[in-house]
Design a protein that fits this description.
By secondary structure, the protein is an alpha/beta fold. 36% of the residues lie in helices and 17% in strands. The chain is elongated, with a radius of gyration of 29 Å. The two termini are 51 Å apart. InterPro entries: F-box-like_dom_sf.
């Protein structure tokens, strides 16, 4: 098909030196667009075009396309839609409606082949309408309800996302493996008092064959439903959820408070060995994290992200909740250490109970990437343990959004760099060593070399704490440690900061 199209098109063009690339690189974009929009197998060729060459090429291509497409269902199994905002204001026939109808036709032709659907409809206003019909209804009636999907990705207004989530999570399905929903609102500014209620266990009680489940701020779960989904999806490997417990469930009678205190002493009740990535956002983090995290045992977790609203007036979780959970995750079912966690991202924390860098690395010994947006301290004993590689031997990226002890962090990096760069002892090297270098070696001992921490970002609430560290940071950069001072908390080290380093 591509050969016929290109040869027909090149007959009309002046001879030029042969260009490198594939056939698709040489096909005009307008021809490709017309083929995929209008050349359906049973549709007669009636394509308006001011260019006769396009009609000739399309007539030849469509004849081959029919024979090919009728017997190849997989061609129609993947659809990606980008829907427009207020498209009805400037056209007689709604562009979104045409796109959804075309997508429906494509998906019909997939037959029994597993389908994939991606929809992106970002906008800031209320749910948009197409030809006086809500977009949510069009998508549900034409795409979601009629077909079985293997993968679904939607980024749209919270009403559409919630409708899709409520429908799909209620329907038992052995086909759906990937479901990721995002609302166009920024979750950082999302507030539970805007009228979006949590989805409860009584609303959804089905099991699926999901491997990936990502839910949006407009579809928050309460704790029982979160645990139910995890319990009834043994093959789940990635789970992103927003947790919102209502006031009635979090504030309870004395009897329920006694049961809560008893549950804190009980061992974890939910073991999940397939989950590798967990991303949690606690919308009311003062009471939810202890209750939820104490009931989990995830020995094979490799990526953990925990966040909460950045508003300082709202209550936050405590660091002890996280360290207890990390300690439990590093233990296998037999009670032996089974380090698996490699990526850890932590959001704002209660200032009265900050994180301690040594504890985080001690309970997660395989960490490669650590990003702490919340307040973090470094004890003197942790400086030496991290520098020697006893804790955090695999750490390569460290981001501290609010370091209370930036001087100790830099000291730890200096000692760690010295330990990672140790050479075999010989007379010449000892002669070249300065007095400070010999002291560092005596402090670090003669154990195995830890991994060099290559990328570091240190920020503080008060930037004056960073004054005087620039000279020491420059020395670290010469040793291969990319250090960025200031710039706000969390979020990793971006490309511009790396170029500056």
């Amino acid at each position: 098909m591509a050969v016929v199209l290109v040869s027909s098109h090149e007959e009309q063009q002046p001879k030029e030196p042969r260009a490198t690339g594939t056939f698709c690189d040489k096909i005009p974009a307008d021809i490709i667009q017309l083929i995929f929009l209008f050349c359906l197998p049973e549709t007669p060729i009636d394509i308006p075009s001011p260019d006769a060459r396009h009609i000739l090429s399309l007539s030849q291509v469509c004849n081959h396309w029919r024979y090919l497409a009728i017997g190849t269902s997989r061609l129609w199994s993947e659809v990606s839609l980008t829907l427009l905002v207020n498209c009805c204001e400037h056209c007689s026939v709604c562009s979104n409606t045409k796109r959804i109808q075309t997508a429906h036709t494509w998906l019909q032709r997939a037959g029994a082949i597993p389908r994939s659907l991606a929809i992106q409809a970002t906008h800031s206003s209320d749910p948009i309408s197409c030809c006086s019909k809500p977009l949510t209804n069009l998508i549900m009636e034409s795409l979601i309800l009629p077909f079985e999907f293997q993968k679904i990705y939607i980024q749209a207004h919270l009403s559409l996302v919630r409708h899709v989530a409520m429908y799909l999570l209620k329907q038992p399905s052995d086909t759906l493996e990937f479901l990721h929903l995002e609302s166009s609102e920024n979750y950082v500014h999302f507030r539970p008092d805007r009228g979006v209620d949590a989805i409860h266990l009584k609303d959804i009680q089905t099991s699926h064959n999901l491997h990936h489940l990502g839910l949006a701020p407009s579809t928050p779960l309460d704790t029982p439903l979160f645990l139910h989904i995890l319990r009834t999806h043994p093959s789940l490997t990635a789970y992103q959820a927003y947790i919102l417990n209502t006031t009635s469930s979090s504030s309870s009678s004395p009897s329920s408070s006694r049961s809560t205190s008893t549950s804190t002493r009980t061992p974890p009740t939910l073991h999940h060995t397939h989950l590798h990535a967990l991303d949690l956002f606690f919308l009311n983090p003062s009471t939810t994290p202890p209750t939820l995290l104490r009931s989990l045992h995830l020995p094979n977790l490799t990526s953990l992200k925990i966040a909460c609203p950045t508003d300082p007036t709202r209550p936050r979780y405590t660091s002890s909740t996280i360290t207890e959970f990390l300690h439990r995750c590093t233990l296998s079912s037999a009670g032996t250490t089974a380090p698996a966690l490699q990526e850890l991202i932590l959001g704002p924390v209660d200032h009265a109970d900050p994180f301690e860098l040594g504890e985080l690395l001690r309970y997660a010994p395989a960490l490669v990437y650590l990003d702490v947006l919340g307040t973090c301290t470094v004890h003197e004993g942790s400086v030496r343990a991290i520098a020697r590689g006893e804790w955090g031997a695999c750490l390569e990226v460290l981001v501290l959004g609010n370091a209370r002890d930036p001087d100790r962090v830099v000291q730890m990096l200096e000692l760690r760099s010295a330990a990672a760069g140790k050479v075999v002892d010989d007379k010449e090297s000892k002669k070249r060593e300065s007095r400070e270098g010999r002291e560092s070696r005596e402090l670090l001992g003669s154990g195995p070399r830890p991994r060099l921490i290559k990328r570091v970002k240190i920020a503080c609430e008060d930037d004056e704490q960073l004054i005087g560290l620039e000279f020491r940071v420059q020395a670290l950069r010469l040793q291969g440690v990319g250090v960025v001072l200031g710039g706000g908390g969390g979020g990793g080290v971006d490309e511009e900061e790396e170029e500056e380093v």
